[in-house]
Amino acid sequence: MPASGNIIRCVSGMASTEASKNLSILKPRLGPKARSFKVFSHIPSLRRARRHAMLAGESVGFVPTMGALHQGHLALIRQAVQENTHVYVSVYVNPTQFGVNEDFGSYPQTLQADLKQLRSLTTDFWNDDSLGQITAVFTPTTQDMYPGLKPTSEVDGHGSFVTITPLSSRLEGASRPVFFRGVATVCMKLFNIVQPDTVYFGQKDVQQTYVIKRMVDDFHLNTQVRVVPTARENDGLAMSSRNVYLGKRRRKVAPVLVRALRAVRVGFTNGVTSREELLSAAHSVVDEELAKQRALPPMWRSLFEVDYFSLADREHLTELDNVNPAHGAVLSGAIKMLPVEEAQEDEDLGTGDGKTTVRLIDNLRLGMPSFPRQSHSRKSSSPEL
Predict the structure, then answer these.
(1) Rg (CA), the chain
(2) Is the dihedral of CA 310, 315, 321, 322 positive or negative?
(3) DSSP state, 208?
(4) pLDDT-derived band of residue 14, with 50, 70 and 90 as boundaries?
């Protein structure tokens, strides 16, 4: 789940200042500002806190995470405190979005470090009365989240699931068939528990934002969806909790994905609109880097595989043969950084000692409106990013 503010749906194409004015209506404060947050491990106690906020007429923004927090997550929280009295953050590694052979067992779980980061962040908001505050961190157990059958990662496994098709079967879904089923299911559960006025997701996980938007619309959930721009390292690599697996060697090569996407954007800016020509620029970048790595001895190189490059329609994520400059497109891609073949002495191989395949995803918007725009989930309209 997720870091990154564009609203998925647009009601009237408000400018960002107008959106801020509208959203500030949601943020009254009737009592003294909270200095820190409470940690809730059980659903009933969190619901009591949420009910208290509702009866006080105070808004709640919600940032769902799987922990291993980084600056992308913190950017979501910073956006949320600008628009809500209360910000709730969940930290839960959801088993149902991991495939049978994926990295659920080794996914970084750093709850105490996450809580320390969040406590430090609250101090940034103490003295600004125009900002809300993190007031709740929800850390449920899997028994609480899946009280019936034990959660399964099997494609045909039993259980109560939310499936959003055909969105969930494209792109990421083609490589990870249970991923969006798990994401939609856990988000439906979390939204039902928290009842947020607004939820916050990052642009990096672009397909996820489409799936969540479709779920919110189709099930008439009483929340708004906010998408915040991707947080990046100085060299352009999209921030991700999985980056801790990379180590120094693979980390140096990982920005090849964003370089490939940026090469496509240069072509589009220069008037190229055909799919073949645009994506050939991405493949040229990755092919050049891969040839360079293959020429190195195993103890120095970092090999990777391209999963996909996509040039998709902005409304439904259907693939395009040509981009209409007036409409723009969503450009996305995924690569797999392969395990280190031969380690050097005392080399920093990252979490997992370089033995884990690290899947990286990223996306750029081609010829599309700037962040942020506003939408209300109660309105029926096309998604925009």
Answers:
(1) 21
(2) negative
(3) H
(4) very low
- Give yes or no: 73 in active site: yes
- Residue range 142-156, pLDDT digits in tens: 999 999 878 888 888
Among candidate residues 42, 73, 316, 376, the one labeled active-site is 73
Q: Which residues pair with 134 in a beta bridge?
A: 87
| pLDDT at residue 13 in the model | 29
* Residue 278 burial class via C-beta count within 10 angstroms: exposed 0-12, middle 13-18, buried 19 and up: buried
What is the C-alpha to C-alpha distance for residues 133 and 332, in angstroms, rounded to an integer?
34
Whether 103 shows a pLDDT value over 80: the answer reads no
Query: Tell me: the pLDDT tens digits for 246-255?
Result: 999 999 999 9
Do the beta carbons of residue 201 and residue 61 sit within 8 Å?
no
pLDDT score for 75: 96
Angle 192-36-40 from CA coordinates, rounded to 5°: 35
What contacts 241, CB < 8 A, 6 or more positions away?
A: 66, 67, 68, 69, 70, 107, 108
